[in-house]
Write a structure and sequence with these properties.
The structure is a homotetramer of 433-residue chains.
Chain A lengths: L3 H12 L14 H12 L2 H19 L2 H14 L4 H13 L3 H11 L2 H9 L5 H16 L6 H14 L6 E5 L5 H10 L8 H7 L4 E7 L9 E8 L7 H4 L12 E9 L10 H15 L5 E4 L6 H9 L9 H8 L7 H21 L1 E2 L2 E2 L2 H9 L2 E6 L6 H7 L3 E6 L4 H11 L6 H7 L1
Parallel strand pairs in A: 4-5
Antiparallel strand pairs in A: 1-2, 2-3, 3-4, 5-9, 6-7, 8-9
Helix pairs in contact in A: 2-3, 2-4, 5-6, 7-9, 8-9
């Protein structure tokens, strides 16, 4: 059944004796898998690479969470660069800073962790497991720095592998495999997909769903953006999510990006999003020349939070003391009367929030940060754009349109990057005045 | 036609003024493309990455060879790591050899060349051009070291991208696209394919041709191995190459690898060969259980050369002085009489050559080196195995069978790697006695 | 937009004057489409066939049901063979019964309806519309014979087109397009699929779903059979339909066909079912040699109905008068006590029903008829096999296993066809004694 | 290995005794295969249809030509309609010409040959063999009428199966499988493809090759048309066939159909050609809007033959007696001097030949017949259009352009069909004056 070298390998490994302790249920321990990793990194790995990698990948997949973390911590501590070699190479460079000493330093710095991860990828399904490893690493990093060395090796390797040049731009439709659609349902992060009927609506004739796939990750979208074609830029999300059967309005002139979701938490930080948005704009421009306007209809995820926690704490003159009290009531945003009463000031403070409020010199709001950096401008602030519980909770029901004008994308992007300029429409300007 | 940001980019670049000198024929110069590369590496690149990368890749493709070399030399000299930063980081590490200073060193060492190559890959067809660049780099490196820094960055990146886990194992048949078959014809390195009819023979019913493809290199095999199914291990190449129509002999029990060729000179040194051989052995074992024997029928590319240049110069007692004179005649190997006369001694010296003659502690013969390292053993030395001009010229017509016995591949490989052991059959042993 | 000849055609047709009456909403009437059909059948059709066919197919698709029937009735009455020509040819044959007069008769008999249907198939989506037409024809034929001539032409043409040689045998999995899966849900006729989760269960690791597709009917299965792999032949449907996650039991030795459904009501009477069952038996035998037993777990759709309406009306001695009264109570089969009381006699009468009760010399029960004709034998009668409302209503909860033993399929089939023999197991024999 | 019913079948058949005589080499005879056919037509066929059909198809494929003809003759004589039944049904119709008697007649007339052919199609590869059978039938029909009954059944069945609605319109490129390209080389009927390089030229960037495929005939084009894109309508074939590398001239405004070939001799008479031409015109109009002119560059296959055999024999005044003598010299058309001397009169007689010379009320020239019927008009007569040996031999080197003007195709077609009108350009008119 097994290829000969794997049988051999397994035998050899099991001869490693006491240190190779499998649990009574014959499952691997973090330690026993670590030993397999060491085998993979020796010359033996060259002969039986694929088989050994498969063994490790399978063993990891069967571990429980604690065991996985224990294993990753071992990898993070055991397979780093050798301090002596690095020190020697660093000194050599300082003595003689030439190209050869640079090469020496690079070599000394390359951790065998990188080799190990590259070899794990040999296994069928290896890439999936590596991505799952990183997902766990990112989770753990919130509490402890132990796994940081692993993250430092994983990020550049995954960035190289998921280079935009290898990504396939595809459309998801009702003809796509159920496995793919299932993932769209599971990973939709903005407006929950409640049923397969709901999903079918989102793939209707007046819609499109675009994604990037990687050829080694079969049937697994990396990221997807949902587009609705409308007449003019819509200001409310309700009609877009409603389950009416949607014929493509022949007069549609706008493409609305109403949801962008990452489907691979283990690839966080390897940004495909900006490439995807641009590719979609290009694609639609070419295939549907009647579409002239590109805009989002976006949530403002942290507006209410900011309003209550940051803004109100600062001295300001916008809200009266009475209004202030209303805003401090729990769940005030669910009370239509309060909202109506404060409407103008909420809109104004939202405009202020989007255009001026920063953190680390970037827009405070993560969605604003993403689209402004990409070259969009703030087009509209939409009162009662999203009256869902979530919409009220996050932003008192307000939504934003970020508009992508093809001819301005680069200049907007550059002004944003170089001078921190945030572009907004005359309508926003009027609000702010 | 162009996306907006590309128009913008082109305008901007052309405003760079005098330094951006296009030749009268409006073709890019190495210098103007270098400027494009610098744009790609600035923040501007983020907005217009794909478009800019496409511009550079297209410009490079249109350059003549001299211009290409000039461009690559600029890349090799201009985009390296910054010496001051490296020095500072090296000193920081020596002062405090902790994980953070390791990170600092790694960051300082990463050349923007690597970023540049990664971004060139964004362009459609980028990967092909990068591989062509490396082909040229490897050629130039034979004369000059100028491009070494580029090679030092290209090799690990290409190795990561062409990780065995991303390669697709496929069969080439008469149903394959003509573009693919054309490349098999062009890259066959061992036994020339003289016509499409010749090719059709090699894809006949008693044959198989296996390859690795990479998903980003459409229709371009990376490497291919040609297999013939036979009764017993054949000792002559003639019947295998003959253009008779070949029905699969129902009694075939052996798979003979009679030709292995690399189809991507720009990926030299990124070894797929050993993975391919193993995958083919596994595949055939599973799909055709009646095949029990796996063997090559291989040339001995440097035997005659070694005999005349190395062996004869050393003191030895094998050939008499008269025989020696025969061997020094030009083209003696074409003379059947001479060959017959020396037959036994040629076979003996060939056995000696294959089993004992080394260079850098490895077998002198490159084909022997490849198969022995992979875990094969020397099975037969075949007199008059290849009477083609090339066969006579390289090895006085002698061929070798390297045999792959699945259950011995790992042990053979390990003995070879660790103790330099070269395994051979009792038949070879008898010759040597 | 339109090809020139279609513009011309439309103009010409609209010049046909008063008889060509479109309704105020510019939709076609049955009459106007009939005129288009006449155009298609003239020489004009040769030039603009595809375009005209598309026009007719589109017009038909937009009609309401009444209009469709009106149109089909016109086709059925207007495009038949010419009586005079047939009479002349019949006389000619009687005068001189040679090959030429046979040819003449054939020609005279061929209705232009057949030409018309063949030309409608030119249109993209034409085949779907033709199948829908036949579905309507079959419905109408239950009330009236008006459309019989159309059915007489449709059946042989569709039989030729859907020749088993053109059908593609495929597996439906969770990787299949949602459009395909949606149709499985919609057309499952035996055990309703209640949700996508329910569907996912039916496509689990211990299951298979096999179908025939026709290359011209993209994404539309013609028929599908659902298979569960079990240890031994199961006697109850409950566990098979239960929504537990199903790992393939490694010890499974049986393939159970627990549901066969036709997905194209418009192709009724063009039997794929027997071919599909045989293909599935062959496929599983080859791919899963550990599966030795092939059996159905089938409903007995008309047992209760027969018991109450046919059996009880006849004089018989099986049930006592008191028992008889119980059986005449409405919904007696829902009453567990009654069922228990009558258990042995119900099983016996069911065995009698399956093995002896006939209609037109065929088994009275349609499912029995299908499997026995196919070469199966009756293996088990399973008390409380299906306690769902439907199962109780149809068969007082009883189910049957029809067993397919590969080596006996042909003999069983022949005995059934030639002598009307119904094969059953010794267990059934014991019941009957 | 074999499914059970096939083993059974083979056993049964071999028990049929003496009449079932296999030859000493165990090959089937026409007679033994005929017996298999009879089995297929009995009820047994229902159970073991696919297996039996496969047996017959395989047996036929292994027969030599004489045996095949013998077998086809048996089919043609043995499986026709039953004379008594036909006579009875004909009389019944004459007595009462109603719908039921029509049905009765149809039923009596349907030969079991049709059933047989339909069942042969069940076998994998059955359709290929049926097409080969028809090819042989068509060949034999040139000498004898014996196989006519078979042809009379084959033609309508193949026409139904190869209905245009089932055909797939595809492009052949250098990316197509070698098997497909091989068939293009083998079946090119107008301008021989001399080498793979020649083929590559025909699939160059300024070319297209369009085909119809049938989904059941994998990798086998039915018909193909070769298109060259040019500036204006070319008048000579030489430059089009020349092996220069062809970049798509950016200024191309014309699509030239320079070769149309049928790739399935067994499907002769089932016309795809006119559909293909129209589809190509539509396709190019849509995909390459810069192409405004559609024209052929066509041979005149029978011009010289007609000139020598028909024209000259009739009294006429065009050629003087001396000229007449030149035309009667063998191979006069190879003599450039003769051609030059007669140039004007040859062109005039060619114009006359194309516009006026008829046979059965259709243009005498088969190529003219095809294009004029399709709705083209005669645009140019090109002196020295094809100086190849074949071109000189057929038409003294003259070629024609038939021009397809999308807006005139239908009117031209109708005028041709209804009134026999042949459209030609003013240039042709001038020649004729």
């Amino acid at each position: 059944m097994f290829p000969a070298w794997m049988d051999f390998m397994i035998k050899t490994v099991s001869e490693l004796g006491r240190s190779y302790i499998r649990r009574p249920d014959h499952k691997h321990t973090a330690k026993s898998v670590n030993l397999l990793c060491q085998s993979l990194l020796t010359r033996r790995g060259e002969a039986s690479g694929v088989a050994l990698a498969k063994d490790i990948v399978d063993a990891y997949s069967e571990m429980d969470n604690d065991c996985k973390i224990q294993f990753l911590e071992m990898i993070a501590s055991d397979f780093g660069p050798d301090n002596d070699s690095v020190a020697k190479a660093a000194q050599a460079y300082l003595n003689n800073p030439c190209y050869d000493s640079i090469k020496g330093l690079s070599k000394a710095l390359k951790s065998s962790r990188v080799d190990l991860i590259e070899m794990l990828n040999f296994a069928p399904g290896g890439i999936e497991v590596i991505i799952q490893m990183r997902e766990l690493v990112l989770q753990e990093l919130k509490q402890s720095k132990k796994l940081l060395p692993l993250e430092v090796d994983l990020l550049p390797l995954l960035s190289a592998w998921f280079n935009r040049g290898f990504l396939e731009f595809r459309q998801i439709t009702w003809n796509s495999p159920a496995t793919v659609l299932e993932q769209v349902v599971n990973h939709e992060a903005v407006h929950e997909i409640k049923s397969w009927k709901d999903l079918q609506r989102r793939l209707g004739k007046d819609r499109n769903c675009f994604t990037f796939f990687h050829p080694a990750l079969h049937q697994q979208p990396l990221i997807f953006v949902q587009v609705a074609y409308t007449k003019g830029i819509p200001r409310k999300i309700g009609p877009i999510l409603a389950q009416e059967n949607g014929e493509l309005k022949t007069k549609a002139d706008s493409a609305i990006f109403y949801s962008i979701s990452n489907a691979q938490p283990g690839l966080k930080g390897i940004s495909f999003g900006n490439f995807l948005i641009k590719q979609v704009v290009d694609h639609i421009s070419k295939e549907m020349p009647e579409i002239k306007i590109f805009s989002t209809l976006s949530p403002i995820p942290r507006f209410v939070n900011w309003l209550q926690n940051d803004y109100l704490k600062r001295s300001h003159t916008l809200f009266t003391e009475d209004e202030w009290k209303l805003l401090l009531k729990p769940d005030w945003y669910l009370d239509e009367q309060i909202r109506s009463q404060l409407k103008d000031k909420l809109i104004l403070s939202c405009a202020h929030y989007l255009t001026s409020e920063k953190k680390d010199n970037q827009p405070y709001d993560p969605v604003a940060r993403f689209h402004l950096r990409n070259g969009a401008k703030i087009e509209n602030i939409n009162w009662e754009g999203d009256l869902s519980e979530n919409g009220l909770h996050q932003s008192a029901g307000i939504m934003v349109n970020y508009k992508y004008t093809p001819s301005q994308i680069v200049t907007n992007h550059e002004a944003y990057i170089n001078q921190g300029v945030i572009r907004y429409s005359s309508k926003i300007k009027k609000i702010l005045e």
